User: Fold this.
Amino acid sequence: MRVAIIGAGMGGLACAVRLAASGHDVTVIEREQQVGGKARRIMVDGTPIDAGPTVFTLRDVFDDLFAAAGRSLDDYVSVRPAQVLARHAWDSDSQLDLHADPARSEAAIGDFAGADAARGYRAFRMEAARIYGILEHSMLRADKVFWPLPLMRRIGLARIGDLLAIRPYESLWKVLGEHFTDPRLRQLFARYSTYCGSSPFDTPATLMLIAHVEAQGVWLIDGGMSALAEGLRRVAEEHGARFRTGTPVVDVELHNRKACGVSVESGEFIPADAVVANCDPAALASGRLGQIATRAVAPLQSRSRSLSALVWLTHARSEGFPLSRHNVFFSPDYPREFSDIKRGAVPGDPSVYLCALDRDAGSGAGPEGRERFQIIVNAPANGDRLDYSAEEKERCTQAMRRTLERCGLQLEDPLPHLLLTPNDFERFSPSTGGAIYGRASHGWAASFLRQGTRTRIPGLYCAGGSTHPGAGVPMAALSGRLAAQQVAQDLASMRRFHPAATPGGMSMRSAMPLDRMGAGTG
Assistant:
């Protein structure tokens, strides 16, 4: 059976690998010239720099994905564990590493903030692990549920205490205060909410589970996340999938009210028995893939968008602070940082994430001369409403530099860089305002409101980090698995109830979908 996948992000690639490996005729249609979606590289100063996700967790998701295709992850990319998960700083005298070994992290926290803080971390880690254990197979790796009661059935009606244990009605910031009296530690573990583009003051404490995900292991990939994307493309092609890059899709077509293929910018129609949209659902809802597809999903209000970002890609010299691979430099006023974003402003005194792409985790020694950095500051998703002027960009750059310098890191000045703003992310993911993670995880119901695999149009499915189970590279890959399973199940049902062979000849699709011939959209 034929499957058309719109978009070659991690969700689309994972879906393509699984469907192609199970014998389906898969065509992936990608607007950009490269695969990977947000996991892309951009040339700066003649050097390719990762412009998308840099933290690789839940390796088992990808081990399982490659195994489903009869392959091994290690045969396609070079992956090794990081010994230091991240390095954190508040000023030039306050620095703390979290380690792959939780005992080392606990000892480091004790040295940093005292024995009570170490005990608080131990309790926090146990609670985060429990929440993850409750939700791993009932929600994160399972089909979407639409309300707490079905989730409770999955967890088990005899385990009603587990539903309360995930703490959906308390904010992450509040519950962290139960574990950490040191405001720096509270701030450190609150930052995990930004992994899904949300504020720790508005997200449920359930998101403590992200800390457990990272504590299970952070992995370093030679070549970055784009190398992983290329590896998935190779596996899919080895199983017969075709990739059409540099080919924008303009319409999802219907026949008898069911998706029957897509039309691309050149006017070509690509027929399919199922269509998977690996894009932000907002693109469907706003008509970016044709007016027919607008009714496939519910629109997302701008107030429900996740965070966007300012991202500096630079090839530069640095001195002072001993950088690891992943580094976080914190704002002195976290509540103000997120209140600035809520009112639509880039924080004047931001927290800064810096990925030193050419360093191993834990090493304080960098390469000779210039090295590649990706630097991120959280920003509001207003890229469709506010034009970031040259003056605004320079103001943001200076604010970012002030944070780094307060913590002891100096970057060369002037700084050779490319700055991506919410305007750029809006152009890359239209109709999102530059929101990088889809819907924000604010409030207890956010997970139930996230777009699921199925849409309101039969034969049209969703995958990607803006859909269930959530944002991030492994979650996007899990969404691709869910989409592949649903597509395969529905196509198998179609084979049973709509056999190709009929008395008197073969049942064949029209040369052009009826909806394009004026027969109505159903």
Q: What stands out?
A: The chain is about 35% helix and 20% strand.
